[in-house]
Design brief:
seven-stranded parallel beta sheet
Length: 303
């Protein structure tokens, strides 16, 4: 299968692209710069030059493919506090790609996040619709293409996706914040839970979705279905030799920055249907075991 991948030089793609190639697929990766093109080539994929603003170019690349995996998203704008602009841009990209695939029966795998289910007040399942706002509109748009003869599906990625391939994800952010502030922080009692997934396990799920997911379905890429944030903070603190402590509500913004609105969310996430229907089984270390492996933390003197 000739697969067009957006975001092909990013963190998730560093697992998705090799996974696809190892399974015999021909991968074409979107690259907007020479550096991105070099990264895509290093993964073994062909390069399609362009960016997310050139919708006609994206539509052509999608039409020329046998399937699309959409990983790209403007995280820089989001981290700067501008949520609306990247979400609007993502919708425009998905409209262009979905329209190009309409009537073909080809697969389109979109990307969302498990945090879209944090509004439920219980463990979220693959059948649950996402909450208002955020990337849920894009998720619903992808699933809606099933009615237009696109075998569309969405992989919901946990807020922490970790591995040696991770250079700037939320795990790195939390560690950096602890180092900068002298405390590994959490909100409230820290009992709210975050799921996590190893990058290589997440990459494997994208391939399974591309190859086998029925139209209009959602899948969860969480190896750890819910770790209390206090345990995550305690692990970070232990590895850095720093205390773990609750951050008062009136200091969350100052301490966590753009993560302040997310850090207290409770997001336990079931993967029962993902495992049962697609046969996905995570085989790589969980988050706390990955922390213990040493890649996320420099060796401390005397340790």
């Amino acid at each position: 299968m000739r697969v067009f991948v957006t975001g092909a030089s990013g963190h998730l793609a560093s697992a998705v692209v090799p996974e696809l190639i190892a399974a015999g697929h021909d991968v074409v990766g979107l690259a907007r710069s020479d550096a991105a093109a070099a990264a895509v080539t290093a993964l073994g994929a062909s390069v399609h030059r362009g960016d997310l603003d050139d919708l006609d170019n994206l539509a052509k690349a999608a039409a020329d493919s046998d399937g699309v995996i959409h990983l790209a998203f403007n995280h820089e704008q989001m981290r700067a506090g501008d949520y609306a602009t990247p979400i609007r841009g993502d919708l425009a990209v998905l409209h262009a790609i979905g329209d190009a695939l309409a009537g073909t029966g080809k697969p389109l795998v979109g990307t969302s996040g498990t945090l879209a289910l944090a509004h439920l007040g219980r463990t979220g399942t693959e059948q649950d619709a996402g909450g208002p706002g955020g990337r849920t509109e894009a998720e619903n748009l992808v699933l809606g293409f099933a009615a237009r003869d696109v075998r569309s599906s969405v992989v919901r990625v946990p807020p922490i996706t970790h591995s040696t391939l991770d250079t700037h994800g939320f795990a790195r952010v939390l560690i950096a914040l602890a180092s900068q502030t002298g405390v590994a922080g959490y909100a409230g009692d820290g009992l709210n839970r975050w799921p996590a997934g190893h990058t290589l396990d997440v990459g494997h799920l994208y391939r399974l979705a591309l190859e086998d997911a029925p139209a209009g379905t959602r899948w969860h890429a969480a190896g750890d279905e819910g770790i209390p944030m206090r345990e995550i903070a305690q692990s970070i603190g232990d590895h850095l030799g720093l205390p773990a402590a609750a951050i008062p509500a009136d200091r969350l913004q100052a301490h966590f920055g753009f993560l302040a609105m997310l850090i207290g969310l409770d997001n336990p996430t079931s993967t029962l249907q993902t495992r049962r229907i697609l046969g996905w089984e995570p085989v790589h270390p969980g988050l706390l075991a990955d922390f213990a492996s040493g890649d996320y933390f420099p060796a401390r003197a005397g340790s």
